[in-house]
Design brief:
The chain is built from 3 helices and 8 strands, in the order E-H-E-E-E-E-E-H-E-E-H. The strands form 3 sheets. Strands 1-7-8 form a 3-stranded antiparallel sheet. The termini are far apart.
């Protein structure tokens, strides 16, 4: 029985800016912050250390084929408990182009100006 529980909502895990790569047939997650155990001692691990994911060979080959395409990367989407294990849901994403970023910035700027102008008349 899987218990879906968003750990990053509780404040113990931060998936923002984290990503996964495949190195030597193994999958690693980078920049994922897991808060140290508060009752721990000097033997607590670094919260930002790289973590190895346990995947079988078929899953790794499938992910390798997906991310070999230009501009695609593995992104951690969700963490949840399944019995005694913490499982991670991975997604394949493509980064934005520079012109896409410029469009988004222009839209946000226009929306901000509109809100400002309407605020004067209310």
């Amino acid at each position: 029985m899987e218990q879906k529980l968003n750990l990053f909502v509780i404040g113990k895990v931060n998936l923002k800016d984290s990503y996964a790569t495949i190195k030597n047939g193994e999958v690693f997650v980078y920049s994922m912050h897991i808060s140290p155990y508060e009752q721990g001692n000097i033997f607590n691990k670094d919260p930002l250390r790289d973590r190895k994911l346990l995947l079988n060979k078929q899953e790794i080959h499938k992910l390798t084929g997906l991310i070999k395409q230009k501009g695609y990367t593995l992104v951690p989407m969700n963490l949840y408990f399944s019995g005694n294990f913490v499982k991670m849901q991975l997604g394949v994403g493509k980064g934005k182009k520079l012109y896409d970023k410029r469009e988004d910035i222009a839209k946000k700027d226009a929306q901000m100006r509109i809100r400002k102008e309407f605020g004067k008349y209310i």
